């Protein structure tokens, strides 16, 4: 009996010794893949400075790293700094923040920031989002936070800087988080019609489960602003997760698309954001009639919109970074971070 126990113990030890390297490898596969993805080179900016379509006065000072004689310690030759249609892609090291801030102070720029905090998303994420925004989002400029919520009585009381205020916008509770995600387009459009257009030149629309960690300033402003998705900016086009269902209004063929954009952050002038949200809302409702639901809901419709209507400015992934990706040499600063997804049950608005 003792001999049997000894043999069993030895067998278990042998299995463990053989299995540990395999378990280690399997556990680290996602990190290895993400590291290798980071080695895939981005495209390069192939336009001259004169060919750029710059709609923010501060953009004139951007350093695209186009001319070797113009290179400085602030050039970014390791990343793509413009699109083929002439929109700048904003990375750390390309701009002087003081130039942008002086320009927008002179223009008396005011910004609206919309955020949805429905159900337990308000309890878990909103306070950190707002506190960090006060420290890093458009600091020194008038900002109004438009909080869309079904529980306005739970909005935290915070002391805001001078010229900054918070307004709550009541929204209906939906049984599915997908519906909340998609119907925000209508809510933002209606808020622009009712309030925003009378008080602000620019609008940013963001997810609440994020926290600011660095400057998110006036360099991000433009007529129509999209964000490169942190998980896709190094991937090949065939790996981008556009909607591939021909029955959906968000459908994109394999040959279509310029970048994969993240719906967690988008913005622009109030006129452009109204057009973005109105168009996406109409295509979402058209899908509902069919009935069809796009793969990534409002994000799929937003990607279709930005393919047909090119953004005038693109933000690099440093403006919405996911630390689970790991180290990337081209991310010098993470300005906005994904918050940890605490539980899938948060997506039930009644929980």
Automatic annotation (TrEMBL):
Keywords: Glycosyltransferase, Manganese, Membrane, Metal-binding, Signal-anchor, Transferase, Transmembrane, Transmembrane helix. Gene3D superfamilies: Spore Coat Polysaccharide Biosynthesis Protein SpsA, Chain A. Binds 1 Mn(2+) ion per subunit. The keyword Cytoplasm does not apply. One of its GO terms (molecular function) is hexosyltransferase activity. Mn(2+) binds at residues 207, 209. It is found in: Membrane. InterPro entries: Glyco_trans_6, Nucleotide-diphossugar_trans. GO terms for cellular component: Golgi apparatus; membrane; vesicle. It comes from the Eukaryota. The keyword rRNA processing does not apply. Transmembrane segments: none annotated. Its cofactor is Mn(2+). An alpha-L-fucosyl-(1->2)-beta-D-galactosyl derivative binds at residues 229, 241, 299, 322. One of its GO terms (biological process) is carbohydrate metabolic process. UDP-N-acetyl-alpha-D-galactosamine binds at residues 116-118, 121, 207-209. The active site is at residue 299. Its main location: membrane. It is a single-pass type II membrane protein. Belongs to the glycosyltransferase 6 family. This is Alpha 1,3-galactosyltransferase 2. It comes from Alosa alosa (allis shad). The lineage of its organism: Eukaryota, Metazoa, Chordata, Craniata, Vertebrata.
């Amino acid at each position: 009996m003792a001999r049997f126990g000894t043999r069993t113990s030895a067998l278990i030890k042998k299995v463990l010794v053989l299995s540990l390297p395999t378990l280690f490898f399997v556990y680290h596969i996602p990190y290895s893949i993400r590291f290798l993805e980071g080695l895939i080179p981005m495209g390069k900016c192939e336009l001259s400075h004169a060919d750029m379509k710059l709609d923010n006065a501060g953009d004139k000072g951007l350093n695209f790293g186009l001319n070797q004689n113009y290179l400085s310690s602030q050039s970014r030759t390791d990343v793509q700094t413009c699109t083929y249609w002439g929109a700048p892609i904003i990375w750390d090291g390309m701009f002087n923040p003081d130039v942008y801030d002086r320009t927008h102070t002179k223009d008396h720029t005011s910004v609206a920031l919309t955020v949805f905090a429905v159900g337990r998303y308000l309890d878990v994420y909103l306070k950190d989002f707002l506190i960090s925004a006060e420290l890093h989002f458009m600091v020194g400029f008038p900002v109004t936070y438009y909080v869309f919520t079904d529980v306005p009585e739970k909005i935290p009381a915070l002391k805001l800087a001078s010229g900054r205020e918070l307004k709550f916008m009541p929204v209906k509770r939906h049984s599915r988080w997908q519906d909340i995600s998609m119907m925000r387009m209508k809510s933002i459009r209606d808020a622009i019609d009712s309030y925003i257009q009378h008080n602000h030149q620019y609008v940013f629309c963001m997810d609440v489960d994020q926290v600011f960690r660095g400057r998110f300033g006036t360099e991000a402003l433009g007529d129509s602003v999209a964000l490169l998705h942190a998980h896709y900016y190094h991937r090949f086009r065939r790996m981008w997760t556009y909607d591939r269902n021909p029955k959906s209004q968000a459908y994109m063929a394999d040959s279509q698309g310029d970048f994969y954009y993240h719906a967690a952050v988008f913005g622009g002038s109030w006129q452009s954001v109204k057009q973005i949200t109105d168009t996406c809302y109409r295509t979402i409702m058209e899908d509902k009639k069919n009935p069809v639901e796009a793969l990534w809901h409002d994000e799929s419709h937003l990607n279709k919109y930005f393919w047909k209507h090119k953004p005038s400015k693109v933000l690099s992934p440093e403006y919405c970074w996911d630390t689970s990706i790991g180290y990337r040499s081209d991310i010098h600063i993470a300005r906005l971070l994904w918050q940890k997804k605490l539980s899938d049950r948060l997506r039930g608005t009644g929980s």
